[in-house]
Amino acid sequence: MNWFLRIAAYLFHPLLMPLLGGVVYYTITPRYIEPELIQANLLAIAIITVFIPIITFFLLKNLGVIESIHLENVKERKVPLMVQSVLLLLIIKVVFNVYDSPEMYYFFVGILFSSITALMLVLLKFKVSLHQIGIAGVTMFLIALSVHFKVNVLLGLSVFFIINGWVASSRLHTESHTLAELIIGFFVGMLPQLILLNFWL
Predict the structure, then answer these.
(1) Which of 11, 41, 65, 167 keeps 20 to 30 A from 156, CA to CA?
(2) Any transmembrane segments, and where (predicted)?
């Protein structure tokens, strides 16, 4: 049971959630999109939100800014969240266009707002759960896509709600977060996606 709970923190790491959102979108959307464009966009998301942050992590670790990838100390989160916010702005400006792909554009705007909120909470010395923010944001995005495209994804939603609980249980089991940090993380991830529905749904 211990390994089962711990593995959730790695499978659903916050860095992987933007890429998961992209995969969810391209799987559900009924619009025809050239396979080459899908591959290019997913590759861009992977490079900007996964590979660059990993390289930045090793750089920050060598500089002594952070100690581990888990960012257990609330002070360690400040610089990584700033870097993530800049990278999300890059995706919004370069990769996705509000006219050609409003769903993905506002998905990343929502992630940006969640990251900025998490950064503000760090400045208030509150360690919100980034794992819960990530999976909650993707879950809300999936709900929005199912309504937008009128697609039945009840099975997928059931799986995502189970994953939300799995991630929360994992973070509690490892004593990485308190229940309050997880609950606030859930709403920090979900609410920006919910509020931004007014612009594209």
Answers:
(1) 41
(2) 7-28, 40-60, 81-99, 105-124, 136-162, 182-200
Both structure tokens of 171:
């973070």
* Angle, helix 78-90 to helix 102-123, in steps of 10 degrees: 160
Tokens of 197: 């529905």
* Residue 60 near residue 139 (C-beta atoms within 8 A): no
CA angle 174, 160, 147 (to 5 degrees): 150
Note the pLDDT tens digit of each residue in 94-149: 999 898 899 999 999 999 999 999 999 999 999 999 999 999 999 999 999 999 99
The per-residue pLDDT of the chain, averaged, comes to 91
Domain of 95 in residue numbering reads as: 2-200
| Rounded-to-integer distance, Cα 126 and Cα 121, Å | 5
How far apart (Å, rounded) are the C-alpha atoms in residues 189 and 192? Answer: 7
Contact (CB, 8 A) for 14 and 128: no
